[in-house]
Every structure is written in structure tokens, then in C-alpha cells.
């Protein structure tokens, strides 16, 4: 087959220009865990008020719990819904949605994930019945058409926020095994388990489920319950069990989880299930002892903490720059900004479960979009024009022109053009520019 390349001066065919393929798209990989400083930065960059954020989080989780009990859904659906609710609120501003709609949409998605399927209108009717118990209504009421569309629209955003990664953790199942292993099945163990189970529900009103593993959450709940009602003997048995499982989670992670729960009970005493069963002074005393142990061991309050990131100013990400191929190749982008803007760009958003595979692919594709520049100066010799052209024919030399003459040799770094506002020519000009190479 004859070559279609154009011939060169030597008679050989020139190489064809490189073919430009389709846009590589944008990659998003789910992240099951996050540190405390990362969660704070996400809330700070979103412009969330800390006091308002706490109230919305508590009210949203309480709404999920009330609707779950009204529909008689299992606790694993509650765990999944709260996890989705926290991740969604970390990635979106409060002004972009209503926290009640986000809570109900998270429960709607969790029902599908956990195979306890409920229609969106069934969840809306249950929420309405919880708020207005004396006003019964039916799911086919047209009143729920508008809110139903809102929940379905938020469902897509929640799926993109979690990266279509439906792995969740259920600490209640492991809690039963741990309590039975430590205390057996006697009557005191049942009372101990009832308190620990209620505390496990309260734990989802914090960000612990998106920070810690299942075993760390269970050990923290069991030890805190032992400190509150078990006595020294039960606490010693819990510590021996935790020491025998030291490779599964660190002591610092358990301590941080307990302090997060104590912060909840101290600051929002009446908004929890355990708060009404114990005196506030009990929680404060336990918190003081834990902080004293941290000071004695010189251990940090939060794991993976960065003091500079904590005091830095908010830095909301520019959606356009976040979705650009150059940004995708040079840095690992946050979750929400790229997801929300990639739909309007040239590429396609793809969700990959393996973070390492996503990082390798992103680095490989980013090498073709990375642009680098260098600055250089070029000295250009320009011929001197005749005097009658230089000053419009009105004279020569130094002062015959309308604007006072002509300048000779000059080093120029600007962008001066012939026939500019001052009408003169400048010789011996030095050009300065930027050259791009890949």
C-alpha cells in the first residue's frame, strides 16, 4: 500500500503527526477512612459553621434513627445510612441542600444497599408520620411528589460521593461477640450489653464511623461502658482482652474514639441515648482521667494531626482547575469538586475501587497533559527607518517629530508595536517570552 505521507525535500515521506485520542477521563477512588484533620479541613473549606454543623449532624442522624424505627428496618441499614450522610455532608456545602433531605436520601440509598428496599415515598411518609403523628397520610398523596424527586436527585450525588463503594461496617455484630467473650452470658453481661449497644448507636452521631475500623470502635465502646458501670474488675478484663488483640488496632485509636464519644456526651448531653442514664459529672471525670493518661504518655489527642493544616485559612478548590487534565495529572484531587464538575467537561468520570491502580493510571495519563514553561530573551536587530517615515515627513533628527523625536538603541522587555500611541520606532529591541515544551 503506498504511503500517504507528503514527500519531503529529500524525496522521503514525512512522519505523520501524532494522532490525538479521546480524553482519558477523570478518575475517582473511594476512601473508607479519614483522619480528624482531614475532616476538619473539608468542613472548613466548605464554609461550615462548627456550631451549626453539630446541630445538623445530630438532627440528621436522629431523623434517620426515628424513620428507621418507624419502618422497622435493621440496625445495619441505620449504620450504612449514617455513614453515607456523614460523607455527603463532608463533600457539599450546607447551602446546596437541606440536611433533612440529605438524611432521608441517605436512608433511601442504604435501603437499596442492604437489601431492605423501600420506596422513596414510603420513607417520606414515615418521616411525615414521625413529625406529625396525629395526621395520617397515604404514600400516593401528591404532597410527596416534589420531595420524592428531590430524594431521587440526591441519590445520584450520594452514589458519586461514596464512589459506588458499598462497603460498610457493622460494629453491633462484633460487639455481641466481644461482650460474650469477656463477660459471658450472665445477667450482668446483658445489662452491660444494653448500655454498650445504646452507646454504639450514639457513636454514629459523631464522625467516628468514617475514621476508625470496626474493631477499634467496638473496643472503645466496651472500655467506655466498663469505665461507666462495670467497675475495676470488668475494666481489667477488658484491658487484658484488648492487650491480647493489640495487633488488630492501636491503643491511640481506641483512646481517640472514647474521647470523641465523651465530647458528644459532655457537649450534647440530652441529644443522646446514654446521656439520660448517667450523670454529666461521670462523663467529665472519665474524660479528665483519659486526658491525664495521654499527658503522662505524651500521646497525641488525634492521630495524624497537623498543626499547620489546622490553623490554615480556608482554601475552597476551584472547580474548573480541579477538573482540568493538568490538575488531574499533577495532584490527587479531592472527591466532591471533581465529581460535580466533570459532567460538564470533555472527559468521563470513572470510579475505581483500587486506589493504587487509580494512582498509577492517573500518573501515566497526566504525563501527556503536563505543561512546562521556561523564560528566555531574544535580541533582535531592527533597521532604522528613513527620517521622513520616522516623524511623518515633518523633520528629522532629534526634535522634528510631532512627539519629540526618535530613540536609538533600546533594550525593551515589553510588547511595543509599530504605530503605537507615541508613533516612534525603537531599535535594538530585546524580546522576552515564554516557550512551552512537553
TrEMBL record:
GO terms for molecular function: cyclin-dependent protein serine/threonine kinase regulator activity; kinase activity. InterPro entries: Cyclin-like_dom (IPR013763), Cyclin-like_sf (IPR036915), Cyclin/Ssn8 (IPR043198), Cyclin_N (IPR006671). The keyword Transmembrane does not apply. It comes from the Eukaryota. Pfam families: Cyclin_N (PF00134). Residues 428-438 have a biased composition (Basic residues). Residues 393-407 have a biased composition (Gly residues). Keywords: Cyclin, Kinase, Transferase. Residues 1-11 have a biased composition (Polar residues). Residues 62-160 form the Cyclin-like domain. Residues 409-418 have a biased composition (Basic and acidic residues). Belongs to the cyclin family. Cyclin C subfamily. This is RNA polymerase II holoenzyme cyclin-like subunit. It comes from Tolypocladium paradoxum.
Amino acid at each position: 500500500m503506498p504511503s500517504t505521507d507528503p514527500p519531503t525535500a529529500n524525496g522521503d515521506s514525512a512522519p505523520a503527526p501524532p494522532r490525538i485520542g479521546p480524553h482519558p477521563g477523570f478518575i475517582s477512588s473511594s476512601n473508607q477512612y479519614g483522619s480528624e484533620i482531614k475532616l476538619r479541613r473539608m468542613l472548613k473549606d466548605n464554609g461550615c459553621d462548627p456550631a451549626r454543623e453539630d446541630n445538623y449532624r445530630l438532627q440528621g442522624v436522629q431523623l434517620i434513627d426515628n424513620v428507621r424505627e418507624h419502618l422497622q428496618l435493621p440496625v445495619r441499614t441505620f449504620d450504612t445510612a449514617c455513614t453515607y450522610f456523614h460523607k455527603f455532608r463532608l463533600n457539599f456545602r450546607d447551602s446546596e441542600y437541606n440536611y433533612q433531605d440529605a438524611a432521608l436520601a441517605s436512608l433511601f440509598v442504604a435501603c437499596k444497599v442492604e437489601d431492605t428496599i423501600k420506596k422513596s415515598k414510603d420513607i417520606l411518609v414515615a418521616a411525615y408520620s414521625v413529625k406529625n403523628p396525629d395526621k395520617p397520610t397515604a404514600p400516593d398523596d401528591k404532597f410527596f411528589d416534589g420531595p420524592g424527586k428531590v430524594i431521587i436527585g440526591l441519590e445520584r450525588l450520594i452514589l458519586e460521593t461514596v464512589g459506588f463503594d458499598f462497603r460498610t461496617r457493622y460494629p453491633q455484630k462484633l460487639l455481641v461477640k466481644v461482650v460474650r467473650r469477656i463477660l459471658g452470658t450472665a445477667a450482668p453481661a446483658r445489662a452491660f450489653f444494653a448500655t454498650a449497644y445504646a452507646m454504639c448507636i450514639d457513636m454514629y452521631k459523631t464522625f467516628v464511623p468514617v475514621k476508625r475500623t470496626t474493631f477499634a470502635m467496638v473496643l472503645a465502646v466496651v472500655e467506655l461502658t466498663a469505665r461507666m458501670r462495670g467497675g475495676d474488675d470488668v475494666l481489667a478484663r477488658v484491658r487484658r482482652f484488648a492487650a491480647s488483640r493489640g495487633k488488630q488496632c492501636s491503643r491511640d485509636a481506641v483512646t481517640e474514639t472514647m474521647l470523641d464519644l465523651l465530647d458528644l456526651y459532655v457537649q450534647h448531653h440530652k441529644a443522646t441515648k446514654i446521656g439520660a442514664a448517667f450523670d454529666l459529672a461521670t462523663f467529665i471525670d472519665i474524660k479528665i482521667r483519659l486526658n491525664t493518661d495521654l499527658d503522662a504518655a505524651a500521646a497525641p489527642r488525634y492521630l495524624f494531626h497537623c498543626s499547620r493544616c489546622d490553623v490554615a485559612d480556608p482554601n475552597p478548590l476551584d472547580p474548573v482547575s480541579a477538573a482540568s487534565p493538568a490538575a488531574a495529572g499533577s495532584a490527587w484531587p479531592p472527591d466532591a469538586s471533581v465529581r460535580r464538575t466533570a459532567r460538564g467537561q470533555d472527559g468521563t468520570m470513572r470510579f475505581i475501587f483500587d486506589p493504587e491502580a487509580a494512582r498509577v493510571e492517573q500518573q501515566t495519563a497526566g504525563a501527556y497533559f503536563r505543561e512546562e514553561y521556561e523564560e528566555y530573551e531574544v535580541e533582535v536587530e531592527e533597521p532604522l527607518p528613513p527620517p521622513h517615515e520616522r516623524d511623518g515627513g515633518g523633520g528629522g533628527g532629534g526634535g522634528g517629530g510631532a512627539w519629540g523625536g526618535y530613540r536609538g538603541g533600546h533594550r525593551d522587555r515589553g510588547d511595543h508595536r509599530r504605530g503605537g500611541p507615541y508613533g516612534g520606532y525603537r531599535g535594538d529591541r530585546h524580546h522576552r517570552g515564554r516557550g512551552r515544551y512537553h
